[in-house]
Automatic annotation (TrEMBL), chain A:
It is found in: Mitochondrion inner membrane. Signal peptide: none annotated. This is Cytochrome c oxidase assembly protein COX20, mitochondrial. It comes from Gorilla gorilla gorilla (Western lowland gorilla). Its main location: mitochondrion. The lineage of its organism: Eukaryota, Metazoa, Chordata, Craniata, Vertebrata.
Amino acid sequence: VPEPVSESLKLLGFLDVENTPCARHSILYGSLGSVVAGFGHFLFTSRIRRSCDVGVGGFILVTLGCWFHCRYNYAKQRIQERIAREEIKKKILYEGTHLDPERKHNGSSSN
Amino acid sequence: MAHAAQVGLQDATSPIMEELITFHDHALMIIFLICFLVLYALFLTLTTKLTSTNISDAQEMETIWTILPAIILVLIALPSLRILYMTDEINDPSFTIKSIGHQWYWTYEYTDYGGLIFNSYMLPPLFLEPGDLRLLDVDNRVVLPVEAPVRMMITSQDVLHSWAVPTLGLKTDAIPGRLNQTTFTATRPGVYYGQCSEICGANHSFMPIVLELIPLKIFEMGPVFAL
């Protein structure tokens, strides 16, 4: 029977930051962006309330931007890993036979 | 299988389930950000000292909070539809199995290469061996090959049932008088559990599904048919 995994940090009770790929990265950059945007706005305007609004907006935008960027790269990486896995399997299976892609390639290049 | 008190999805055993988990993460991040925004708005509402009740003529705000949710819905809908159509792709199954729901057990028919038909009953607690799983283990498992597309034809002999295996991302209703089809390709061997997912009477909770996925080479040697 699988044992329960140790409790992972869940933001607002449902976003598992530790086990969701790119979540921790996005939230951290979002927090940084929020602090930079909010504090920067305050330094220029000295308006507390508006700076908090800018901070929250910055958090949402930076988190979303990092999230999409990271997930896109993660998806690309998974596709490349799958292609590599398939090619390795094919190479092991067909090495030395007439179906070997390297043999076909070498044969055509020598011709 | 799920561990005790598990809330999240189980690890994926098929490419479709991997896509579903990815989509779930994507939707959850959007939901988190919306919840964060709403909590912030609530905090502001509860802590404001402003008492003006002039809430008319906010055209810009109304435009923003109409268009923005529409954009968010599109961001959620596009991946969702992509996966929906992916599940309907014809992937040339190499093996077909029929699954028939009864009150309260499943019948499986392997009719492609012979006429193997068997029933799958939940193991009663008194018959459990040490290490067996209560309410999940069955007397006869469904043995299938890994990395081969499999077609499941699902129906019922009496009332509505539903054939579900969460780790494969499968849930298909078993409807009397109707044949539903689902296909899957398992990516790793193992024993995977599911439970009937449509209320079907007193023992609805006691008709589990157990798949035993084995390497194709071993499956071809015919252990399934050596009963």
